[in-house]
Write a structure and sequence with these properties.
The structure holds 2 protein chains of 2 kinds. Chain A is mostly helical. Chain A has one domain. Chain A contains 15 helices and 2 strands. Chain B folds into 2 domains: 218 residues, P-loop containing nucleotide triphosphate hydrolases (Rossmann fold, 3-Layer(aba) Sandwich); 62 residues, Alpha-Beta Plaits, CATH 3.30.70. In chain B, a hairpin with a 2-residue loop joins strand 9 and strand 10. In chain B, 38% of the residues are buried. Chain B starts with a strand and ends in a 5-residue tail after the last helix. In chain B, the strands form 3 sheets. A 6-stranded mixed beta sheet of chain B has the order 6-7-8-3-9-10, with helices on both faces. Chain B has a 4-stranded antiparallel beta sheet with strand order 2-1-4-5. Classes of the chains: A mainly alpha, B alpha/beta. At the A-B interface, helix 1 and helix 8 of A face helix 2 and helix 3 of B. The structure holds adenosine-5'-triphosphate and magnesium ion. Magnesium ion binds next to helix 1 of chain B. Chain A: This is ABC transporter permease. Chain A: Keywords: Membrane, Transmembrane, Transmembrane helix. Chain A: Pfam families: ABC2_membrane_2.
Chain lengths: 318, 303
């Protein structure tokens, strides 16, 4: 298996397009850093002495929203409840809302880049099997004394490793850029999380690692789907097209559907955002973390059954 | 002699169309076996089944005692193959391509890789990207790729496609060397008979998925007997002994006879003694080519 992974890794990293992807990712982070730095220098951040009073006004307006909008919409109700709880916690414990930019806020902002990493991972996932078919090299690959299942598995693991590498690049490189541009936070900061009606303080860097992983779940699922399509249909443009469409539209479409239909909760994209269970509200009322995890596992299993089932059996006449 | 490869009543149907019908043959150790047939006869399909790229509808294929169907990994371990064009990773160098394949077999040393590169004559260009290779160079790399693990059976689908005359000659010599020194068996497919005759020990003719003939090439080449067409005047007086002693076949302008070269003067002297007018005597080359064309044109070819 080690040798197979090495082969796949070499094939990917000897491609110019892979180098371009990594360079784009790094450039994206630097550009973002420059932009935020520019914003920071132009806007004067003075400490607002009246922040408690302002939060109090905010709370009363949220409470109003809670009674009017929260009446018939469970999602909005939880949203307002969360805002109120967080703001009350700040007033009680004397934690001023902090607008200061520092290394961790930048690492957090860099999560935007995960979409780009996702795009690249999906491109790799969609091409890793189908490119062997389109170049004809699949013939020389499948006549080795290695089962097709092992070959496909090595390719899937390579896709996962590639995705993890992309995430690591974003996290580490944005820490570096953040440290250089914004420095460490001036006061001890921690993350305020709201869960089950309670507010909890968490270490911010650890919270970011979790955030990164959680925001990659939809990418993991879509990349797995792209991989499945690419192994089953042997066509990378089809796999890339449909996957990118779902990556950018799937979430939005699901949110739209969620306000009308209860069965939306069975759609893949209703379950990919697990952060909702920690810091937000689930898309359909009554959904739980374990429900989403089970749904994700079911989708994951279906994708792999299709990919491996079809790849292992089908005639190779490319 | 032991069979390295045996096809047992192999059938393949694709989308309801029978592509291969009940194909059976075996290839012996050290033998160069030719698969000959017109375009679309099913040569590539047969090869794809042997290497496990496509499944069998019926029958079985045994490589070195192991069934490709039931024991794919054990069976295919003994095979090195090029199926149709030798497609390689174009963005890698020739050497990196060979390394890819070397990693998928057990115990291939760096020395072995270098030895194979030397053998196929790619030493100078091996560190260049395959993108820059000519067709002939890709064929050479393809050959190198299937020799890495010293297979017992080499399967080459139209291997001389793209090679220059010197390259083809060299390729033939390689095959001879491999079969003689390493005892490798080789299956070569082609639709060019002249090439196959020079290269193979035995040739199977496939047409529309059916084996129509298997012949030993050496029987032909080593056989001193040639067919001569003797153009003569009327033969009425001599027909009897011509038929009995020489087994002649009569045609409009005279007769044909299959004899050794040394016997030709003998025959002609006797004819002249019997007062038959002899106009000419010429050798007709009746090679496998004719046999091939005869067989294949009867059935409207394979197209
Ligand atoms: N995937 C496929 N689907 C349908 N028919 C196929 C498929 N592959 C091959 N065939 C048919 O099977 C027959 C044999 O094809 P094959 O490629 O084996 O011929 P071949 O003897 O290698 O010919 P050539 O000399 O042109 O290489 C052809 O009639 C072809 O149309
Ligand atoms: Mg062919």
């Amino acid at each position: 298996m080690g040798n197979l992974l090495m082969n796949e890794w070499i094939k990917i990293f000897r491609k110019l397009s892979t180098t371009i992807m990594i360079v784009l990712l790094l450039l994206g982070i630097v550009t973002m850093g420059a932009f935020y730095k520019y914003q920071e220098t132009t806007s004067t951040t003075q400490v607002n002495e009246n922040w408690k009073q302002e939060l109090q006004t905010q709370i009363s307006s949220d409470q109003e929203g809670l009674t009017t909008a929260g009446e018939n919409n469970a999602n909005m109700k939880t949203y307002y409840e969360r805002q109120i709880a967080l703001n009350e916690y700040r007033i009680e414990n004397d934690i001023a809302p902090n607008n200061e930019q520092h290394i961790w806020t930048f690492v957090g902002d860099s999560q935007m880049m995960i979409s780009l990493a996702g795009l690249f991972s999906i491109i790799i996932a969609a091409g890793i099997v189908s490119s062997e078919f389109s170049s004809g090299t699949i013939k020389l690959l499948l006549i080795r004394p290695i089962s097709r299942v092992k070959i496909l598995l090595s390719k899937y693991i390579t896709v996962l490793l590639f995705g993890i590498l992309m995430l690591a690049i974003i996290y580490l490189f944005s820490s570096l850029v953040g440290l250089v541009l914004f420095g460490l936070p001036s006061t001890d900061v921690s993350h305020l999380a709201y869960s089950n009606g309670e507010v909890i303080e968490r270490s911010i860097s650890f919270n970011l690692v979790i955030q990164y992983l959680l925001s990659s779940i939809d990418i993991l699922m879509i990349a797995t789907m792209a991989f499945m399509i690419s192994s089953a249909f042997r066509n990378s443009s089809f796999a890339i097209g449909i996957s990118l469409f779902l990556l950018f539209m799937g979430g939005t479409a699901t949110i739209l559907l969620a306000s009308w239909f209860d069965w939306t909760k069975y759609i893949l994209f209703a379950n990919t955002d697990l952060t909702a269970y920690f810091d937000g509200v689930p898309i359909v009322e009554g959904m739980t973390l374990s429900f989403s995890i089970v749904m994700l596992l079911i989708y994951f299993l279906i994708f792999h059954l299709l990919a491996f089932g079809i790849f292992a059996k089908r005639d190779v006449a490319a | 002699m032991s069979a390295v490869l045996t096809l047992e009543h192999v059938k393949k149907t694709i989308k309801g169309n029978p592509i291969i019908n009940d194909l059976s043959f075996s290839v012996q150790a050290g033998e160069i076996f030719g698969l000959l047939g017109p375009n679309g006869a099913g040569k590539t399909t047969t090869i794809r089944m042997i290497v496990g790229l496509i499944g069998l509808t019926d029958g079985d294929i045994i490589v070195s005692g192991k069934s490709v169907k039931k024991n794919f990994e054990e069976a295919v371990k003994n095979i090195g193959a090029i199926v149709e064009n030798p497609e390689m990773y174009k963005h890698l160098t020739g050497y990196q391509n060979l390394k890819q394949y070397a990693r998928m077999h057990k115990g291939i040393s760096k020395e072995k890789i270098d030895e194979v590169i030397e053998l196929v004559g790619l030493t100078e260009r091996i560190d260049e990207k395959v993108r820059t290779y000519s067709l002939g160079m890709r064929q050479r790399l393809g050959l190198a790729q299937c020799l890495l693990h010293d297979p017992k059976l080499l399967i080459l689908d139209e291997p001389t496609n793209g090679l220059d005359p010197a390259g083809i000659r060299e390729f033939r010599d390689h095959l001879r060397m491999l079969t003689e020194t390493k005892g490798m068996s080789v299956i070569v497919s082609s639709h060019l008979l002249s090439e196959m005759e020079m290269m193979c020990d035995r040739i199977a003719i496939i047409q529309q998925g059916t084996l129509t003939d298997i012949q030993y090439v050496r029987d032909f080449v080593d056989n001193d007997q040639m067919v001569y067409l003797i153009e003569t005047g009327p033969l009425d007086n001599v027909k009897n002994w011509l038929q009995q002693d020489w087994n002649a076949t009569f045609v409009d302008s005279g007769f044909t006879v299959s004899v050794n070269k040394e016997e030709v003067p003998l025959l002609l002297n006797r004819l002249i003694d019997s007062k038959v007018s002899v106009y000419s005597a010429k050798e007709i080359v009746k090679t496998l080519e004719q046999r091939f064309l005869e067989v294949t044109t009867h059935t409207n070819g394979g197209l």
